[in-house]
Amino acid sequence: MKKQNMLLVVACVAIIGLSFLWSPQGAEYSGADSQAETVIEQVNPDYQPWFHSVYEPASGEIESLLFTLQGSIGAGIIAYFLGYQKGKRSDVSL
Prior knowledge:
Layout: H1 2-22, H2 32-43, H3 60-89
């Protein structure tokens, strides 16, 4: 089992490393929100948004941090729930 886990870790690191090596030089990564905004501006330049954000982060780095934090908390909740359900089904008594 330990060997299998190490192989999975090495595979993940290799995939991440190769994606950085093969990415286009000077590529700018943006989220779906900004891409959708660009398309809307091209289709209808006079469009006025009907909703504004409650909180606007000071920079893109803070926005990325908050997005990552949100995803991490969600993943933690899902992992806890799955572990809890697995623990309920186990035959081990404490």
